[in-house]
UniProtKB/TrEMBL annotation:
Protein name, UniProt field: Fatty acid-binding protein, intestinal isoform X2
Species of the source: Lepidothrix coronata
Sequence similarity: Belongs to the calycin superfamily. Fatty-acid binding protein (FABP) family.
Segments forming domain Lipocalin/cytosolic fatty-acid binding: 2-103
Entry-linked InterPro entries: Calycin, Fatty_acid-bd, ILBP, Lipocln_cytosolic_FA-bd_dom
PANTHER family: FATTY ACID BINDING PROTEIN
Pfam families: Lipocalin
MF-aspect GO terms: lipid binding
Length: 107
């Protein structure tokens, strides 16, 4: 519960750059800054801010980035979506039937 309360104040900023099928994503918050490089459809390892280890990939479906990630500790799947809607980035996660959505304003 404490991690969730802290996460609500992380002040996360996301920068996404695309070069063909290769993406660079920089996530900067009050707690950590990481830079992630991936190629569409290629699996990679990723660690959430709470330390949860995952393996998965991103694909492009229309104008939407769609991620499928499997937790290494329990094998459960997290679906992630990132989509530009107007002047905002809408990020949606679905895990065990629960959907969460976060909206980022262009800075």
């Amino acid at each position: 519960m404490m991690k969730r309360k802290l996460g609500a104040h992380d002040n996360l900023k996301i920068t996404i750059q695309q070069d063909g099928n290769k993406f660079t994503v920089k996530e900067a918050s009050n707690f950590r800054t990481i830079e992630l490089e991936f190629t569409l459809g290629a699996d990679f390892d990723y660690s959430l801010a709470d330390g949860t280890e995952m393996k998965g990939n991103w694909n492009l479906e229309g104008n939407k980035l769609v991620g499928t990630f499997t937790r290494k500790d329990n094998g459960k799947v997290l679906k992630a979506y990132r989509e530009i809607v107007g002047d905002e980035l809408v990020q949606t996660y679905i895990y065990e039937g629960v959907e969460s959505k976060r909206i980022f304003k262009r800075g």
